[in-house]
Amino acid sequence: MNKLSTKHFIGLENATEKDINLIIETALTFREILDRPIKKVPSLKGINIVNLFFENSTRTKLSFELAEKRLSADVLNFSGSSSSLNKGETFRDTVQNIQAMKIDCAVMRHPIPGSCKQLTRYLDCPIVNAGDGTHEHPTQAMLDITTIFEKFGRVKDLKVAIVGDILHSRVAMSNIFGLQKLGAEVMLCSPPHLIPKYIQQFNVKISHSIDEALQWADVVNILRIQRERMGIGLIPSVREYRNLFGVTKDRLKNLDKELVIMHPGPINRGVEVDSYVADSDQSVILNQVLNGVAVRMSILYLLLGANNNEN
Amino acid sequence: MKTKIIIDSNKKVLLKGGKVLDIVNNQFSNNDILILNGKIIEIGNISEKNSFHIINCKNKIITQSFIDVHTHLKVTGVGDQEDLASITNAALSGGYSKLCVVPEKKTDTPELIEFTKRLNSDNFVKLYPMGCITKKSEGLEIAEFGLMVEKGAIAFSDSDQPIMNAQVMRYALEYAKMFNVPVINHPEDINLVNNGVMNESSISNILGMNGNPSLAESTMIFRDLKIAEYINGKIHIPNITSSCSVDLVKEFKAKKVDVTTEVSPINLFFTDKNLSEYDTNLKISPPLRSKDDQESLIEALRDGTIDCIASIHNPHREDDKDKDFYNASYGAIGLETAFAATNTVLSKNNFSFESIIKLFSIKPAKIMNIEIPEINVNKKADLVIIDPDKEWVFTEEDVYSKSNNTPFINKTFKGRVDYTISKNILFG
């Protein structure tokens, strides 16, 4: 029976190449199921999964919930904003209370880096990281990588440029780890103060020119510029950012090749990417969303399904 | 588990067969010591009598007990925070009999200095309070240095609040010159800290945590050293952690600026690599740095750029540490482990035993103008008995604070304080 080599799925830093490939392969199988008229399989029947969302999230939460339901798991939703945390209950007490209700798996989004590792100290069940601050967002990276694999049939030797605010990104490190493990080259393209100072130690290329990045890359993954970063001196203005780093129609037209365009969403149209680019044939943005469901089904199945079937 | 043994005032204590290191005169001798009611009454070859309380000191070293230049007391709290008994036991277990106490509850008036002094009345560990540099530690107006010194303030510090306004720092350093006490400013520029919770490095990238660059520390230290140089002030720089800070201190010491520094044993024992499990007991300010920084701290202790070891003892309730890394409090307890941890690292780096002991007694004494008694007849018996080669594992049993926020649980140490003698008690 296929299983991941780890109990939890916390990040790609320590994931094995074998596990990453297994997730992709399994995701593509589930992807076929998503094209069927009835998109549900019984793999996780009788399994209880709780989605702990201590931070707002729309697409990640929907994607996980859908993945869980399509695997026939029973789903419990918890959101930090409407919880007893507001009444002063600690994180530890909150999650241990939920554990006491006999949960088989916890999926967690939390604003603080390291909180998923902390959760492994409090709970016995498998834990899936749905983004812990700026630490890792491994399911997003896996859906990005799966989409690249689906498009090219391989990841090895591809050139992937990640463009945008790397410093505050939850997904950049996960993508770097995952892509490099499969043999891709990674470039980070951003203003210097939005790239972590010591990131070069991870064997990535650095560029401060969007034209250079587009020229070099096979795939460009455009990160959202968070509007809350503006007005605190990090980005002088929208028009300045667009001028220096926007992936625009003109910039794309100047290339003599077809780049693959990715974006984890939500998109700021006209800021980091033009509508023309986002909606073009080169864009795989909506494939990413669909693959997101398949990848999350794959990870949950590989953590929980094998055991379930044995039982 | 060590215990406190109270000796009758007419009972003599004999320390038999030990090697005596009088750190004041920097002399080793093989002598027995006889103590009565907290005083040394005889030194030499003393024969045992049945009426004595005898401690076998074979293969042990007897020297003066330690002074800590940086203790957070936390005794004025409620419930499960520290009390005078727990801090006393923590200090004695680590060989300390004198603690310089950083202002906790905004100790910015002579009345509050007296309050801390009053805690001394029947305590076996002597407390030396520091006063705030600025009123309410707000960094705006200097506090009543003169009145506080009269009541016993030995230095001025706003604890872990840095004085961000350079002009206020200049006033403080100039004004303090009248009293010949050091001004101690937390070495971080809070704008450059930029909400960082660990050293900015490739490891902070991996862990996804906001980086606090060594630049934040060295920038503040450079500013303060320039001010001290300009107005000829007396400055003590607390908990330095980076090679860049070491270089600056070295440069200004060469220019004869009146600067002293301290380092915490945690920085000698751990680096930012140890944060991979997000252990909040390793959340300190300034943060743990790299291996290279650690090596430069050790070399700075060797060449005297760093003057002494500070325990930076900072107890926190378990609930304040059992949090995510961002929201957990800064600091760890350190009195229990300071000597053993330091001795473990420095003896491995070929420091002599007496050079390590100096970092705990004679050098802190010099910085804080505290007198250490010689080991001689009619002098106070403020002593420790140390087994310098003992290998032992530090466990929760060895924690005497009520708090147990220490990263040293299950670490192996070389060198152990077996007994601390203060007034009429033996702790060991």
Shape of chain B: globular
Low-confidence segments of chain B, given as residue ranges, are: none
Distance between the termini of chain A: 12 Å
> Strand pairing plus helix content of chain A: what structural class?
alpha/beta
DSSP summary: helix tally of chain B: 14
SS summary, helix count of chain A: 11
The average pLDDT of chain B is: 95
Report the order of strands and helices of chain A. HEHEHEHEHEHEEHEHHEHH
The averaged pLDDT of chain A comes out at 92
How many extended strands of chain A? Answer: 9
The most extensive interface, with participating residues per chain, is: A-B, 24 and 21 residues
Radius of gyration over C-alpha positions of chain B, nearest whole angstrom: 21 Å
Task: Please identify the structural class of chain B as seen in this structure.
Answer: alpha/beta
Low-confidence regions of chain A: none
Largest sheet, spatial ordering of strands of chain B: 1-21-20-19-8-3-4
Query: What percent of residues of chain A are in strands?
Result: 5-15%
Helical content of chain A stands at: 25-40%
In total, the number of strands of chain B is: 21
